[in-house]
Amino acid sequence: MRSMEIDRRRFLKLLAVYGASPWVAQAAGAEALSTGIEKSRSLYLSARKHAGRYEAVVINEQGRDLLVVPMPDRGHSFAIDAVRGRAVVFGRQPGFFAVAFDLAGKRPPQALPVATDRHFFGHGVFSPDGKIMVATENDYEEGRGVLGVYDATEGGAYRRIGEFSTGGIGPHEVVLMPDGRTVCVANGGILTHPDYGKLELNPESMKPSLAYIDLHSGDVLEQVYLAPALHRLSIRHLVIDASGAVWFGCQYTGPAQDRPPLVGRHRRGAQPEMFAGPDETLRDLKNYVGSLALSADGALIATSSPVGGKVVFWDTVTGNCVGQADIFDGCGVAPMVDKGFIVSSGQGVLAHSLPVQDNLQTLASRSDLAWDNHMRRI
User: Fold this and answer.
1) Helices and strands (DSSP H and E) totals, the chain
2) For residue 20, what pLDDT is reported?
3) What is the reported pLDDT for 17?
4) Which of 39, 92, 98, 158 is at a distance of 20 to 30 A from 255, taking alpha carbons?
5) pLDDT at 68
């Protein structure tokens, strides 16, 4: 448990930083922040490493920093409550920290508690009324996935008030369904323990699944599994299309020479559909999808592969692959307000991608930045 204690000490140092120094780093103070938010057509959230420091940031379409929140270690993704102007950033798996903050920088950030024998998997979601926030977590001593439930009401202080079983192992992303009451969880199926890092402890008995869970009762309403032949295809990331179908991206843990389909779609009451695309495209993805996003018009899904250096585009109706673009170490992807997607890379690049063009237009590039896996539009 030594690694866990180190992470907790690092987290306590973060609290000390908040109490001892200005917690928001921004170019021109609160007035500039407010003006920048008002003038921006879209705002985005991402985690990054900047000159050796870990940060969560709000940026505009041109990549300008509007808000910077320090973190004790590498971040992953967010739970976003856009209606109330707040978000929670989670530590990367195995994450032993999470920080809630105001998107307009009006209040100092707040550390979330980490339950005993639990760690975060990097994703979460708020209920539509803002009263609760749930986060994917690992009950690593029992080897099961849970949704930690947190009191997100005014004055609730993000107290952890319970947990729900996800019906599987290794839950990663969780998304809110259009009914506002159900969440879909990607149970990746990989058993891990923080004492062993990300070592896969159950490669032969993996059972990746999608679980639909009632956000208030914790009941598993529906659960679907991939075919037995795909049991080493870990379901990781999710996005919901305009029809309410859940699209998912996978990471294959089997032999490197295998070429299973990595992208799928599920409609409630049916079996998952899998999409492979052209042979060359599937090969170039190198068995890894790192993030998904839906275009602003609902017509396209973008899937990124930092391992393969590709962003691939899929028609939401037919499931056909309709294009791709190259970006080295590119993973974060989110819709632009007009057409296409904003894509970020671990090399400090922000780019605009259109599915009809093979090349990306660079929006910003900084050698002192490394963007992390996810870019989220607010």
Assistant:
1) 3, 28
2) 37
3) 47
4) 92
5) 97
Distance in angstroms (rounded) separating the CA atoms of residues 242 and 231: 28
Token pair listed for 81: 């409550």
H-helix or E-strand spanning residue 6: helix 2-20
List the strands of the sheet with 321-326, edge to edge. Answer: 291-294, 300-305, 310-315, 321-326
Q: 101: which 2 tokens?
A: 């903050």
The residue ranking higher by pLDDT, 141 or 29, is 141
- Give the amino acid at 337: V
Residue appearing with tokens 């391992």: 307
Query: Any idea which residue has 């021109």 for tokens?
Result: 28
The residue whose two tokens read 């866990």 is 4
Q: In whole angstroms, what is the distance from residue 291 CA to residue 284 CA?
A: 16
User: Is the pLDDT at 15 greater than 90, yes or no?
Assistant: no
Q: What are phi and psi of 297, to 5 degrees?
A: -90, 0
CB atoms within 10 A of CB 221: 15
pTM (whole model) above 0.85: yes
